Amino acid sequence: MYTILPYTKKKAKELGVQITPSRDPKKKIDVYENGEFLFSIGAAGMGDYPTYKRWQGKAVADQRRRLYHLRTQHAQIGSKGWYSKNLLW
User: Fold this and answer.
1) pTM beyond cutoff 0.85
2) How far is CA 52 from CA 14, 21, 32, 45, 77, in A?
């Protein structure tokens, strides 16, 4: 099970959503807004910004984030990809 780190908790608070570890074993986080389930996001077993930062340091995490943002620059606001980008990266 994925451990939600303080970075992601802070981002969730900024976005006004609630997050919990996902019930789907293939995902990291379940996202809720006003108590209503929206999405399960983040592939379990894949890295994200706070995880890379813990494992390999800030420089590597910053580079991975830059590349992730290049790949997801067209994520529609409020979509699953947008929440992944804004909560995990």
Assistant:
1) yes
2) 21, 18, 25, 12, 25
